[in-house]
Amino acid sequence: MNRSAIIIDNVSKKFARSLKRGMIYGLTDMAYMAFLPGHWKSRGYEARVSDAAREKQSAVGSAVEGGNLLSKVCDTDLRPSEFWALRNVSFKVEQGETLALLGANGAGKSTMFSVLSGIYAPTYGSVSYRGRLQALIALGAGFHPALTGRENLYINAAILGMKEKQVNAIYDSILDFAGIGAFIDSPIRNYSSGMLVRLAFSIAIHLDPDVLLIDEVLAVGDAAFQMKCAKYTRELANSGKTIVVVSHNLLIVQMMCRRAIWLDKGQILQQGDTHTVTKEYQKFMMTRDIGKDLKVASSTTTFSAAILDVKWHDAGGSVIEKPEWGRPCKIVLEIEAYEDVDCARLWVSISAIGKEGTVMYVSMFDDGHFLSLRKGSNRVALYWESLPLSDHSSYQISAGLRDWSGHVVLSQSYASASFDMNEQGTGCLNETAVDSRLKTANPLVTIPYRWVVEDQAIIRNIHEHS
């Protein structure tokens, strides 16, 4: 049985860069198609009719991605000033899968989202999906500035198809996730952009969609809210929801998505495991403009380095899949420096997937160390004599690099793939300890311990009562 939630089959989409030509092409196409016999119609007829109507109303081509074309099909279909925003793109997203779309500005990501959400019809190819789709592209677009957050909440939910009773049932959950407190009864014209995104995002994700499209809408929110959204979307995916994300924040992408597709000039350049694709994408972004400052596609921020990978090693230096409880281990961070950096400071945290808070955190800001990076490849290791993480949870490593003061970010933050711990016993050091698998609690950290009698009491082993 086919369980694909989204199927993109050989999708291509073209636009005109010129407003004038776009309107002329639109009117011309509409005129020809009005008198064209049905049996003469070629592929993409309905999409071209739809495009023509839209081009007549606005210069859609002037606001979407452009770029040089890769040679394959449809070159002869282009008229002067036209270009392919998407070209021969095919992929599937399985039910419950989280997928990231990566690429520089102009790669075709937003156009792909617009085609997925039905804003544009593809010029060629087809798009299909299962269930109810919710696109988070322009959050808060329907909000009225004079109305309060509460009023906008009910109006926005009604526009999206929810009844008042349904909203009442999830109102507290929406408000709790948004975290705006008493401001819910203030006019939203008094909201900051981050508060507006919090409320709009909270409304959208509580509408219980089967397919969720998230297009860079978290860029305005603060770091804590972004992490909260990343964890919540992972929970949605675990419950069977299908999620597609566009973001230039690679930390969010790595935390939220298991698979990634790298788009370049409207075509798929690479797809696969998120950490493999993001690693190659970062390398590409660092080397594409040799002799120029490294710039992340979504902003003017210049980074001096990139954290490309984190791997577990045993005490002997061999790569291991996951650490073993109670034994020495280390993580090795692969850092690619775009230039020499005299004074950098590294932080590393370990968090439990699906749980709030940080389990372990180490930082050069706290222990007084700093790094000197040289242009090119650098490797830094973090060693533990014993890592006492419990085997009841899955974990994830996050890492970042800042300057000596901590105010300048030197690299995109990094998030590893999830990992588990090798199973351990009770952690009891007494000779009579029982290696029992019957646990009554699920702690995140299992630190070796010992029972000690100090006065009167007697400690016995469970086998004495067998």
Q: Notable features of this structure?
A:
466 residues; alpha+beta; Rossmann fold; Coagulation Factor XIII, Chain A, domain 1; six-stranded mixed β-sheet; 18 strands; 25% helix
Q: What does this molecule look like?
A:
It is built from ten helices and 18 strands. It is 25% helix and 27% strand. With 466 residues, the chain is α+β, with helices and mostly antiparallel strands. Strands 5-6-7-3-8-9 form a six-stranded mixed beta sheet, sandwiched between helices. The protein has helices at 19-34, 45-57, 109-116, 149-159, 164-178, 193-205, 223-238, 250-256, 274-287, 364-367, and strands spanning 4-16, 82-94, 98-102, 124-129, 133-136, 211-215, 242-246, 259-264, 267-273, 305-314, 319-320, 329-337, 341-352, 360-363, 371-373, 376-384, 395-403, 414-415.
In short:
With 466 residues, this protein is an alpha+beta fold. Helix content is 25%, strand content 27%. Among the domains are: 134-272, Rossmann fold, CATH 3.40.50.300; 303-415, Coagulation Factor XIII, Chain A, domain 1.
Q: Provide the structure class.
A: alpha+beta
CATH superfamily of the domain at 134-272: P-loop containing nucleotide triphosphate hydrolases
- Strand segment count: 18
CATH class of the domain at 134-272: Alpha Beta
pLDDT averaged residue by residue:
76
The separation of the N and C termini measures: 51 Å
- Work out the radius of gyration: 27 Å
Uncertain runs with pLDDT below 50, 5 residues or more? 55-74, 289-300, 432-440
The CATH topology of the domain at 134-272 is: Rossmann fold
Count the helices. How many? 10
Please summarize the sheet with the most strands.
6 strands, mixed
- CATH architecture tag of the domain at 134-272: 3-Layer(aba) Sandwich
Order of helices and strands: EHHEEHEEHHHEHEHEEHEEEEEHEEEE
Beta-strand proportion: 25-35%
Gross geometry: globular
The main sheet orders its strands as: 5-6-7-3-8-9
Helix coverage percent: 25-40%
